[in-house]
Amino acid sequence: MSRAFESLTVGRWQLPQRFVMAPLTRNRAGAGHAPTTLNAEYYAQRAGAGLIVTEGTAPSQVGQGYLDVPGLYTDEQVAGWRLVADAVHARDGVVVAQLMHAGRIAHADNKDGVETVSASAVQAPGEMVTADGNKPHDVPRAPSTDEVAGLVADFVTAARNAVAAGLDGVEVHAANGYLLHQFLDPTINLRDDVYGGTPENRARFVVEVVTAVAEAIGADRVGLRLSPGHQFNGVGEELGSTDLTATYRAVVDGVAPLGLAYLSLLASPLEPLETLVRDLRERFDGIVLINDGFGDVTSLGSVEELLETGLADAVVVGRPFLANPDLDERWRQGAELNEPDQATFYGGGAEGYTDYPTLEAS
Ligand SMILES: Cc1cc2nc3c(=O)[nH]c(=O)nc-3n(C[C@H](O)[C@H](O)[C@H](O)COP(=O)(O)O)c2cc1C
Q1: Which residue, 32, 4, 1, is CA-closest to 17?
Q2: 47 close to 21: Cβ distance less than 8 angstroms
Q3: Choice from 20, 24, 172, 346 to test ligand 1 binding pocket (greatest atom count within 8 A of CB)
Q4: Is the distance from CB of 278 to CB of 311 less than 8 angstroms?
Q5: Where is the segment annotated Disordered (predicted)?
């Protein structure tokens, strides 16, 4: 029997297997950035994942970035998430909201004209899709030292809202070049206050957010996602540098005493990061989830290989879950898989979203 199908306790949840559904932005939220019955159907179809981490969800309007991303800062959004929570629970699943403040990966057009903030006023390269076509990312404003507390408070409110909606917890998104990662990266964070300069100072905001969220809703239903050195969205962290090691050690050492549900590491590419991943896993001393990035789509073989390395307790699986609502069953049976259709990843309706067939239907 493959290790992939051994059960695992993560925080307050007992999971049936050692792979979980990755956070996947799908840009299909309804009016007011609220989840809809279509979104609820999508997540319920995938309840067999055991643990679902939702698409990145904005903790505030300022934290919105892309078009049609859901939020967790209005009553309407909480009501929308209740549809998702109830539908997933009806199928015995567990679902946590990924709290994603986009920071500088944003355009005001996608959030009713509100401002964009980042660690420093450093514009991200590239463009953002808006309703009027592609536009350069906003030039962000750097919040003052005192304002950072307000950003922390937004994460706490969103986490409380997640629980109020009946969701099982939250994952704090400090990966992939969004706001929290922008504070970690010395090429984006040029601050000279307590949130900038040394690795410990750059780690401070992430540690404060995770600590405050854990205190608010209970550490055993809070996860943290990090992607050390992932050069995505203009991140300039240097693989193999002593600064990278010191920065991520500072984050992990800062959150380890909290007793979080899990630490989720996106290690891409895995090979040069293996030493750092092992080091962070030892320091964290709790459940570690891993994903080795966008290079190859995760397969059952790669899940098993990753588990064999001992780098993690479970593997985070993205595109195969996107295209296979019953992926767990298909992998158990060694059945054929549906192929993910990249053209329908971001935005649209049911097509490429809720219409991937189950094994039973195909
Ligand atoms: C369509 C799509 C949307 C994604 N959205 C998010 C997101 O909202 N938050 C996040 O942390 N990662 C996001 N990712 C990264 C995935 O969580 C995962 O790391 C990546 O897909 C590689 O794993 P895979 O080979 O299993 O798909 C996204 C990936 C894809 C393909």
Answers
A1: 4
A2: no
A3: 24
A4: yes
A5: 342-362
pLDDT band at 269 (very low <50, low <70, confident <90, very high): confident
CATH number, domain with residue 286? 3.20.20.70
How far apart are the two ends of the chain, measured CA to CA in Å? 26
| pLDDT tens digits along 289-327 | 999 999 999 999 999 999 999 999 999 999 999 999 999
How far, in Å, are 100, 160, 171, 205, 250 from residue 221 at the CA level? 16, 12, 8, 20, 22
Whether 352 maps to a domain, the answer reads no
User: 297 lies in which domain range?
Assistant: 3-344
For ligand 1, atom 4, which residue shows the shortest CA distance? 24
Q: How many domains does the chain have?
A: 1
- 196 belongs to a structural domain: yes
Ligand 1 pocket member 99 (CB < 6 A): no
Is residue 356 in a domain? no
Q: Is 176 in the pocket of ligand 1 (CB under 6 A)?
A: yes
Could you report the per-residue pLDDT of 60-116, keeping only the tens digit for each? 999 999 999 999 999 999 999 999 999 999 999 999 999 999 999 999 999 999 999
CB-CB neighbours of 362 under 10 Å: 10
Is the residue at 13 inside a domain? Answer: yes
What is the distance between the alpha carbons of residues 138 and 136, in angstroms, rounded to a whole number? Answer: 6
